[in-house]
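Hi R.,

As promised on Friday, here is the backbone we talked about, encoded as structure tokens. Could you run it through your design pipeline when you get a chance and send me back a sequence?
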């Protein structure tokens, strides 16, 4: 066998072994008890700190999003304050992103800070609420409904890691 063939085969073996090590190292997961816990109070989602292992050496973006809705009440200005339920609820979304630099990742480990997001609901116009006409005024009424909360973990930012992302 020629020296070129031997060197070529050794080079291929080296590349394959390095790629295998890179794939093996890329196994992001929450440490035991390290998955953040997200709770919703009113229209605010609060997510606790977390602990992750198996990360690469790139920036991380953690985003928390929440969607909320609430009923609207139509007030007739001409009939002693007569009210009617609006046909359409008020809706809002809120999100917050936390950017974490690679220098905070130590040997693939990261402690994720707590993060929160708030959806700010506001009464819409008479037309948006579905009131009988535009002279009616609108207020919010009834319980707030949370239709979704998402914790999204990305490394690098723009690339979601499904094993570290969840809905609540």
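Update: got your reply. Pasting your designed sequence below so it's all in one thread:
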């Amino acid at each position: 066998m020629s020296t070129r063939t031997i060197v070529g085969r050794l080079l291929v073996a080296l590349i394959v072994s390095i790629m295998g090590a890179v794939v093996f190292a890329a196994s992001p997961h929450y440490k035991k008890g390290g998955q953040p816990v997200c709770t919703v109070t009113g229209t605010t989602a609060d997510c606790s700190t977390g602990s992750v292992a198996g990360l690469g050496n790139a920036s991380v973006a953690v985003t928390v999003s929440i969607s909320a809705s609430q009923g609207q009440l139509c007030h007739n200005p001409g009939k002693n304050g007569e009210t009617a339920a609006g046909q359409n609820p008020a809706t809002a979304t809120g999100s917050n992103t936390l950017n974490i630099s690679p220098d905070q990742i130590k040997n693939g480990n990261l402690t994720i800070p707590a993060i929160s997001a708030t959806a700010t609901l506001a009464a819409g116009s008479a037309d948006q609420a579905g009131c009988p006409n535009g002279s009616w005024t609108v207020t919010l009424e009834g319980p707030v409904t949370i239709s979704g909360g998402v914790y999204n973990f990305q490394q690098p930012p723009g690339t979601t890691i499904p094993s570290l992302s969840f809905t609540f």
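One thing I noticed while checking it: The helical segments are 3-25, 126-129.

Thanks again,
M.
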